[in-house]
Structures are given as C-alpha cells and as structure tokens.
Model the fold of this input.
Amino acid sequence: MKVYFIVYLLIFNLYTLGAQTEITKTQEIEQHLLLSKSLLQKDLDSSSFYVEKALELSKLIANDTLLVKSHLQKSSVLIFKKGFSEADSLLQYNLEKELPKHLEGQTLHNLGTIQYYKQNFKKALDIYLNAAKILEQTKNSKQLVNTYTNIGSINAALKNFKNAQTYLERALPLSEFNEILRLQILVNLCNIYKEQKIFKKFTDNIFEAETLAKKYKAKNILSVIYNNLATYYTEEEGADYNKALDYGKKAITLKKELNQTSTLNVSYNNVGHSYLKKGEYTKAIRYLDSAIPDAQGILKSYIFNNLKESYSGLKDYKTAIRYADLKDQIKDSITNAEQKEKVAELTERFESEKKQQQIDILDTKNELQALTIKQQNYILIVLVIFGVLVLILGYFGFKNYKTKQQLDTVLLQQKLRKTQLNPHFLFNALQSIQNFIYQNDKEKSGSYLTSYSKLIRLVLEKSDDDFTTVEDDKIALESYLNLQQLNHNSKFTYTVDIDNTVDEDFDMLPTLITQPFVENAILHGLKDNDKGNIIIKYYKNNNVLYVSIIDNGKGFEIKKENAKRLHKSMSMGIIREQLKNLNKTSKHFDGHISIDSSNEGTKVILSFTAA
Done:
C-alpha cells in the first residue's frame, strides 16, 4: 500500500512540475514577444532575435495561440525588413486556423500593411476595411486605431479626402493611450482639413499638435506644423501675414537645426510669399532667391511666379517678364516630361473605352427595347384581365408609367451622347499624331504634341472646376486653334487678344465654354474659305467680362428652323445647361450668349459677371 502511495505522489509531482514548466514557458514566450515589439523600431536585429526565440518555444509546447502571436510579430519584423513574401506566408498560415477575433483582425491588418508597402493601395484598402470590421467587434481600440489611421492615410494618398477625414477622425479619440500616435494623426488630419479648406477644424487641431510636438521635442513634425500655419495665415480665411512670417521663419530655423537643407526651399518660398502679400517686395525677393537652389518642378514654378509678382511690385517689369518666361518654361518642361507617358496612356485608354462604349451602347439599346416590350405587355395584361372600371384606373397608371419611361429614355439618350463624346476626339487626335509620325514630319508632330498635351492637361485639370481663369482659357483656345490649323493646312488665321481691362490671372469665366463656338466657326463658318480669319478678344466693361468670337465666314440666317437646329446641337445644349446651372448655383454670377450672323460672318458675344 505504501508503495502505491509513493508511486502516486511521484506521478502527481511530475504532473505538477510539467504544468509549472509549461506556465513558465508561456510567460517566457510572452516576455520575448513584448521585448520584440518594444525593439521593433529601435533595434531590428534584436527584435528579430526575440521573436525567433518566442516562435521556437511556441512550437516546442505546441500552443496554437502563442504560435499565431509569434507569427504576427515575426511578420511585423519581416515587413520592416521588406521580406514581404515570407511575411505573407506566415499570415496566410494564421488565417487557416480558427482564430479569436482580435488575432484575426491583427493578421488582416498586417496583410494590408504588406500591400500598402508594395503600393497596391486598392488591395490594401480592401484588406484594412475587412480588418476594421472584425476589430470593431472586439473593442480592441489599440489595434483599431492603427487600422483606421492606415485607411485614412491610403485615402489621403488617393486624394479621397472625405474618406480620409472620416477614418482619421475615428482614430483620433482612440489614440488617448499614445500621445506620439495622436500627434501623427493630428498632423495628417490638419493636412486634410487644409486641403478641403475646412479652416475651423484645422485651427482647432493644429495648435494641439503643436503642443504635443513641443512636449516630445519632435522638431521634424514641428517644422511641418509651422509650414502649414505659415501657408494658412496667407489664406483669405485666416489672412494674417505677420503670423505667417513668424511661423515661416520658425520652420526655417528648425529645418536648419535638423540639417534638412533639401526642404528649406519650401519654407523660404512661404516667407517670401508672405512678404509679397504684405507689399514688402525687396524682402520677398531675398527669401525667394534663397528658395531657388534645389527647387524642382511645380515648386520652382511657384517661386518664379512669386518673383515675377515681386518685381512687378517694384515696377521692374523687365525682370518680372524674365521670371514669367522662366515660369512658363518650367510648365512646358513638366508637360514634355509627361508627354510620352500620356500619349501611351491615352492610346491604351482609347482602346479600352472604345470596347466599353460598344458594350454600353448595346446595353442601352437593350434597355430601350426592354422598356418598349414591358410597356406592350403591360397594356396587353390590362386589356385582358381588367374590365372597364379597371381600364379607367389603368389609364392613370399607364400615364404615370409613360412619364417614367420618357424620363428613363432621356437619361439613356444622355448616356449614349456621353459615350460618343470623348472617343471621337481621342481617336482623331491620336490618328493625326500617327499620320505625322508616318510622314516623318518632326516639326509638325512636335508642334501637334505640344499643343495637344497643353490642351489635354488643361481639360483634365479643369474638368472638375466650374470656373477657369482667362489665362488658362486663352492657352486652351490657342492650343486648340493651333491643332485645327495643322489639320486644315493653315487655311485660316486667328488672333487671341486680352484687353488691358482684364486681369488674366484673376478674372474668371465658365470652364471650357468658348471652345465649342470656335469649333463651329472653323467647321461651319470657315468651311470652303481659304482666307478665313477668327478674332477672339477678352475685355471688361462695368465689371462684366466679355468674350467676342468673330469669323469672316458665310454666316447663317437665324430663322425659327435654324434656331431649333442650333438648340438641338449637343454642344450648344450642354453650354446652355451649363450656364443655366451656374446662374442658379453661383452667387453673383450671370452668363449670357448673343449671336449675330450675316453673309459677312458671325459674331458671338459671351458675357459674364465676375465669378
């Protein structure tokens, strides 16, 4: 009996010892994982060492939960090392298991981060959104704040500022536990508020960000905050040029302390711009001159424009013109650098759009046929099933149905028109480029490409805007006329003149409203005329901006039937609808069209109040 008791005690002690050993190893694994996380952004090699230890022990005790946690941490280390393939394999292994929600959400978050680093923003966004849905169920705010922040960052990179704002605002209240993370979220939010001109929220948050940046001595972030404040105080909403100068100079001081000379030109330009706004042109020039070295692309264009304005303020118009020319050269060089890529992109887009339009047209025709068949079936069923009383009720139902059908038909016809607009233009333009290249006419093909790229760039940049400047409208018209001259072998001449009553950089008119009238003049007014001439002039009278478009073509009689045909013109219809909407929605705006035609030519006058 004693022997059995001794054996029992021995077995019990061994079991207890084994359980204690497993608890000890579990604690050791958790400790290794904590150490790895704490060292992740400080010492990547040490972080990797500790996670490997945790992974080895997790396999030894066959604990699936700890193994999943170890895979998660190792994937984070591998992502920092850009070992995306191995990290993805570990995370896919995790997803094969039945995971607790918080671990599943974290696994998806890391998978999204891999795609984010690989610049696959669409895929990363889909994965992050899935991770957020799962983490929202767990109330795991510490992990959720990172997921929300990354979703906001991707949307900001894709210029989806509304979505970026939504998710960063969700992340902000969850960041109370980590002020460094809160600082990063605040800075990103302020950038988004500023982009959208939501200045109240911008000012509510930017100063909290400044306080946190000072607290943690984050000079790099503080310099960004000061730059943002400097530009904000030059905006109309919060214009205070003395504050703009103060923050701009603080940004310069911090960047010099951090030896960030490569980004100093942005701050120099901000300070120079503030002095320009104050009318202190000599000081503005001193800072703007400092901004020129190492400036590239669009920033250099802004600097040259500020220098042009500064020298104009000093009445040194010769130097002002020189900087205006330099600004235009920068714009042209940017356009030329993107030209080949844009042509290839347009060709590819044309082919895909052409196929899609064929599908859309077929679908639209099928829908119209379906509507007709549905109407016929409806009438037949009403006649067969119902009596005289039901027919009376059916009449009202049929009338309502007919109205809805007409609305649907109008919408479908608009869809057909839209599918036929851009493809024709793209096809003609690309075919012209192709012809010149085949003819080895380098001068014409170069001129055509330059005009074409300017026109396309302005159309793409201004397509979402209701208004454009006189300068941009003039550039678009000159580019378009140059293209048409090439197509018509210079059978007509043209002049585009801006009266000195017009401020071409600030006076506005509806976007791309003049081009259809110029097109009518070329294609119809000057048809069969080898000595055609088009005169376009911008001028102002009593604060009303006028654009006159005159041709010496054959003209036309404005009879009722012609007026109907003109009204049915798709471009004229779009223009009338454009003016109608702008007259309703834009404060203090009123636009009108006047057309006078005779056998000596046609004169179109467009008039707009200041927009």
